[in-house]
């Protein structure tokens, strides 16, 4: 996949769309694969803005420790957690259990 799109958010969404079902990645991992390793916060902003985009699985993007830091941007109290759990990902106290086992590294794809 060519990542020449000038719109950073669209580039973020292109990566997020590749996250496999039952896997998660981090804001920083997406930023790194886009050549903007110091832009994890901008990736977070993109994910926050993606809540109305049905084809962007924003629930699969978490912080580098597996915490559901973006959960307050989803409708409902626990929607992000519920979406992850529906894919078989175990979450306790807003943190993904066995984060390393369900982590998807976008650099392996692009």
Describe the model:
α1 packs across α3 (40-49) and α2 crosses α3 (40-49). The protein starts with 7 loop residues before the first helix and ends in an 8-residue tail after the last helix. The chain has a two-stranded parallel sheet with strand order 1-2. A two-stranded antiparallel ribbon has the order 3-4. Residues 1-5 have low confidence and may be disordered. Helices cover 35% and strands 7% of the residues. It has five helices and four strands. It is mostly helical.
Task: List descriptors.
two-stranded parallel ribbon; 110 residues; mainly alpha; 4 strands; single chain
Separation, N- and C-terminal Cα atoms: 7 Å
The biggest beta sheet reads: 2 strands, parallel
User: What is the helix content?
Assistant: 25-40%
Per DSSP, the total helix count is: 5
Question: What general outline do the C-alpha atoms trace?
Answer: globular
Low-confidence stretches: 1-5
* Tally of strands: 4
Structural class determined from secondary elements: mainly alpha
**How are the strands of the biggest sheet laid out side by side?**
1-2
Please report which band the strand proportion falls in: under 5%, 5-15%, 15-25%, 25-35%, 35-45% or over 45%: 5-15%
**SSE pattern, N- to C-terminal:** HEHHEHEEH
- The residue-averaged pLDDT reads 91
């Amino acid at each position: 996949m060519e990542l020449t799109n000038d719109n950073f958010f669209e580039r973020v969404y292109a990566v997020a769309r590749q996250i496999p079902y039952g896997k998660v990645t981090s804001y920083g991992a997406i930023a790194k694969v886009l050549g903007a390793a110091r832009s994890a916060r901008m990736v977070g902003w993109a994910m926050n803005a993606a809540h109305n985009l049905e084809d962007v699985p924003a629930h699969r993007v978490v912080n580098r420790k597996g915490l559901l830091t973006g959960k307050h941007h989803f409708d409902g109290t626990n929607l992000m957690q519920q979406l992850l759990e529906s894919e078989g990902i175990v979450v306790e106290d807003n943190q993904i259990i066995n984060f390393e086992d369900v982590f998807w590294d976008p650099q392996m794809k692009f």
